[in-house]
């Protein structure tokens, strides 16, 4: 009996110590030729400036040192957008009290989705302020360029399908504005993984 | 029979009962209606029919269902474009119809919604679903 106890104790010690800490990939790594040979650079999220649901200007600087989740949607989309909003809301609620996490939802229909329309939409989801979750609009060209930018960063990775401004992808960006993950925003299980991965970045891994 | 054997027997019987019970519960929760509801409705209306803010109306305890039970099948197939009022709250987002669903699937979903989210638990017969759908088909002039 005593032997069994020791065995279990040692076994469980190994079991727990073998659990690897999860680390997330960095997307957009590229080898560049320098004078000294090859070096690796990481593409960061492009510079942007949009206007959010309260009419405030939002740019990269607002997300400095924060982890953020980015997606593309439009308010008059009855198919996948409510599904994505439900999942974004899960992330919002989970990290409600953590100021190190922010969300940015870009409209791809700026002709219709002006500041007021976005604020109405946010209200319908129960989001009263713009402290954590920014619903942004801007020039159509800039919004599509932004989506394209996330796509170019993803392009190096074969698993991420293109054109995700229409496919409901959530993009996870770290404190250094590097893309760390792409998740299907219509899939509850994928978003559960995203919620765990956010914590990994917040913990500084 | 000594005590040890008895204990073992009780343990085995307990495990068996637990196994059968969970299997039965699984079968119940994975009925065709539950599966269809999960696949086609829950992503917007929520697993418990709770809705989503004021974007998507709730189904759970929704007064709309009481007064519109004969409309439910039509809404599932053809969607809603106009604003509707549910439990005192107006909802003005469009709902897309699920035109690919068969009448049997629609009947299963209606009965799942009815038995889980309403007090009356009205049972929809296949004829009733067929009549409702025929009615709104004529109305839409399709």
Written overview of the protein:
The complex is a heterodimer of chains A (205) and B (142). With 205 residues, chain A is of the alpha/beta class. Chain A has a single domain (40-202), classed as 3-Layer(aba) Sandwich (Glutaredoxin). Chain A is 35% helix and 23% strand. Chain A is built from five helices and nine strands; from the N terminus they run αβββββαβαβαββα. Chain A has a five-stranded mixed β-sheet, sandwiched between helices. Chain A has a two-stranded antiparallel ribbon with strand order 1-2. A two-stranded antiparallel sheet of chain A has the order 3-4. In chain A, α2 packs parallel to α5. Chain A is globular. Chain A starts with a helix and ends with a helix. The mean pLDDT of chain A is 87. Chain B is mostly helical and 142 residues long. Chain B folds into two domains: 1-30; 32-140, Cytochrome Bc1 Complex, Chain D, domain 2. Helices cover 58% and strands 7% of the residues of chain B. Chain B contains six helices and four strands, in the order ααααββββαα. Chain B has helices at residues 3-29, 32-45, 63-67, 72-78, 103-117, 126-140; strands spanning 79-80, 84-86, 89-91, 95-96. In chain B, the strands form two sheets. A two-stranded antiparallel ribbon of chain B has the order 1-4. Chain B has a two-stranded antiparallel sheet with strand order 2-3. In chain B, β2 (84-86) and β3 form a beta hairpin. In chain B, α2 crosses α5 (103-117) and α5 packs across α6. The longest helix of chain B is centred in the first third of the chain and has 27 residues, at 3-29. Chain B is elongated. The mean pLDDT of chain B is 88. The A-B interface holds A 76, 78-79, 82-83, 85-86, 89, 121, 123-126, 186 and B 43-44, 46, 52-56, 79, 93-96.
């Amino acid at each position: 009996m005593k032997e069994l106890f020791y065995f279990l104790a040692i076994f469980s010690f190994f079991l727990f110590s073998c659990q690897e800490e999860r680390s997330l990939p960095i997307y957009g790594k590229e080898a560049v030729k320098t004078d000294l040979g090859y070096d690796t650079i990481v593409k960061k999220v492009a510079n942007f400036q949009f206007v959010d649901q309260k009419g405030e200007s939002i740019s990269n600087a607002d997300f400095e040192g924060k982890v953020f989740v980015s997606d593309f949607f439009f308010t008059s989309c009855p198919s996948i957008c409510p599904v994505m909003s439900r999942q974004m809301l899960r992330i919002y609620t989970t990290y409600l009290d953590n100021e190190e996490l922010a969300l940015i939802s870009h409209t791809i229909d700026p002709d219709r989705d002006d500041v007021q329309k976005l604020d109405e939409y946010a209200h319908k989801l129960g989001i009263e302020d713009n402290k954590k979750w920014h619903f942004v609009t801007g020039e159509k060209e800039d919004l599509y360029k932004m989506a394209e930018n996330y796509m170019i960063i993803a392009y190096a990775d074969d698993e991420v399908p293109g054109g995700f401004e229409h496919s409901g992808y959530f993009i996870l960006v770290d404190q250094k504005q590097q893309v760390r993950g792409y998740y299907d925003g219509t899939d509850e299980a994928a978003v559960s993984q995203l919620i765990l991965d956010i914590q990994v970045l917040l913990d500084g891994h | 029979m000594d005590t040890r054997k008895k204990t073992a027997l009780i343990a085995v019987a307990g495990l068996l009962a637990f196994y059968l019970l969970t299997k039965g519960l699984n079968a119940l929760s994975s009925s065709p209606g539950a599966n269809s509801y999960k696949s086609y409705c829950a992503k917007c209306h929520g697993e418990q029919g709770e809705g989503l803010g004021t974007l998507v109306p709730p189904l759970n305890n929704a007064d709309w269902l009481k007064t519109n039970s004969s409309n439910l099948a039509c809404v599932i197939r053809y969607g809603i474009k106009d604003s509707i009022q549910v439990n005192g709250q107006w909802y003005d987002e469009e709902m897309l119809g699920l035109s690919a669903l068969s009448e049997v699937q629609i009947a299963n979903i209606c009965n799942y919604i009815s038995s889980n989210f309403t007090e009356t638990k009205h049972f929809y017969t296949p004829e009733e679903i067929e009549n409702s759908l025929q009615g709104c088909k004529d109305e839409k002039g399709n």
